[in-house]
Amino acid sequence: MEPKKNPQLDVRRNSLLFFFVGMTLVLLMAYLALEWKTYHNNDSWDVSGLKVDEELIEDATILKLKLPDPPKPKIKTPPKIEIADDEDDIEETVIEASEPDQDTEIAPVESIEVADNDIPEEIPFVLIENAPIFPGCENEKTEKDKRACFQSQMLKHIRKNFRYPEIAQEMGLQGRVSVIFTVQKDGSIGNVRLKGPHESLEKEAARIISKLPRLEPGKQRGTPVKVPYSIPITFKLN
Questions:
Q1: What is the mean pLDDT of residues 158-162?
Q2: Which of 1, 30, 35, 137 is 20–30 Å from 20 (CA)?
Q3: Any idea which fold 143-235 has?
Q4: Rounded to whole angstroms, what are the CA distances from 41 to 32, 44, 50, 198?
């Protein structure tokens, strides 16, 4: 014989209802705990109640500046107009025209001086027709070859006469000295200009340039002219 349970005494009969009621109570308590607010009755922390020592308050210094008086306007005296009498004879200045007309005399052609040539006195190395010729480059056939020979002979001359200054070696000085000189109309070297990192290096570069031989001057349309030339000399310690 199977035992029978009374449905009225079954504990699980209202379990779902109890679950929802319990969840509602838990959510209500959590809400109240999060939204609960408390206030302090003591307001001693209010900054408006702080007292500041009067000695720390500095009075702003009032400066009275006297502005200069505005400049007085300059009143120009009107020019004095003199009215001449009708009886007085007034001499009028006649302005003659300077433009030529049919009555202007023409100077004879023989009296007009004509310049021999319009060749400038100084022409840069890259623009001159016939560049200066270094000794030993006379046999080069073309102008391009003569210029290339000039460059190579200049470098050869610098390497041959180069001597590093002792004071520059002791001080560890090195750098590039820009040298600009002019080949004069007679082939001599003049107007040497130097710019470098130290005076000792500039003096050595000037000594090297002073040992250049006399060159054949540059020519423009067959006329000797001055030719500036620039070359850098590099000083580098090993």
A1: 91
A2: 35
A3: 3.30.1150
A4: 22, 9, 18, 83
